Amino acid sequence: MDFPFNQLRLDDESAVVALQVSRHADFVALARASGNVEVWDINGCLCCQYQCNKMPIQEICISDDGRLIATLGAATIDGEMRTELFVYDSATETARSIPHSNKGGSFRSPMFVPHGHQLLVCDDKPILVNGVSATHIEHDIPENVTWDTIAFSRCGKIMALSNADGLFQVFVGLKPGGKLAYFGKADHVQRIAFSNENDVFAIFQANSFFDVYEGVVYSSSEEPIVCEDLLLLSFVRSLESWLLIDRTSGLRLFDSDATCFGTFRMPDLETISMISSDIDGNVLAVARTDGTVDLWHSCSLLPYLPVGASSLLG
After folding, report:
1. Most buried of the four, 111, 172, 210, 258, by CB within 10 Å?
2. Which of the four CATH numbers 1.10.10.10, 3.20.20.70, 2.130.10.10, 3.40.50.12160 does domain 13-137 have?
3. Where are the domains of the chain?
4. Is the distance from CB of 232 to CB of 276 less than 8 angstroms?
């Protein structure tokens, strides 16, 4: 077993409440219970630190180039759940508040569109925002589409969405002219991840079934996967395998038929609060209960290749 190649830690030892590795593993953005937001580069150098949210931060996302960071805060005020969304521009060191689309709107699941500074967020309807100017952009997603879980393909032109009602949808393109490519029902999708193929993705449902989609055709696990508190679903490009991490079994690798072919121990699993990875599954940011964040190369957590892995590696 290897060791993390970096550890991110300042004097603020409050818990990490939101975490994201940038798309190509250049940056790590995290928010703490204290309200502090930190952005680090992959070498362990602190790029910026700031506070802007008045409400406790629930979610964070970062643009590919590390310039923009979006933080979503939420709190119960006078018996009602309220949300706020800020975008911080590290180039100008300014934060802009994103207005709700209508009175009483509720933000959730913000995500920067790959290869740029556009921010997509659900506000009881889809909103596409220019992250630099905080202005709304025209898009072609129907207003009745909502989501709690979202992921973009490698090319950035395909996105998969799922909401708490069990509706699962795949769209090609955000600008006018985009189209709905697939929709179906799923039991509250907890995680979505795309492979290195733009039209191949996997979902993990609340009923513990793990499904791999290729277009509209998919392979499903033959029986529910024992999984307690799912921490990560990612595609490890170097192994051409799906990586699933949970508190019950640690790390598990799955092939394209949703068949598990390897289980591995995760160091100090009981101290992990959350995990994020880049799109290639090469770098894992592991937040721990003491406020530290360890950076691992995913392959260093796999002490040996299980039987059958050689066929996947080609």
Report:
1. 210
2. 2.130.10.10
3. 13-137, 225-314
4. yes
Give the span between the Cα atoms of 276 and 287, in whole angstroms.
9
CA pair distance 19, 248, nearest whole angstrom: 21
Q: What letter represents residue 6's amino acid?
A: N
Q: Residue 54 corresponds to which tokens in the numbers above?
A: 């008045």
Choose among 140, 147, 157: nearest CA to 121: 147
271: left (phi over 0), alpha (psi -120 to 50) or beta: alpha
**What is the three-class DSSP state of 313?**
helix
Task: Identify whether the C-beta of residue 10 lies closer than 8 Å to the C-beta of residue 54.
Answer: no
Q: Which residues of 238-260 are buried (b: 16+ CB within 10 A; e: fewer)?
A: ebbbbbbbbeebbbbbbbbebeb
Q: What is the pTM of this model?
A: 0.90
By residue count, the chain amounts to 314
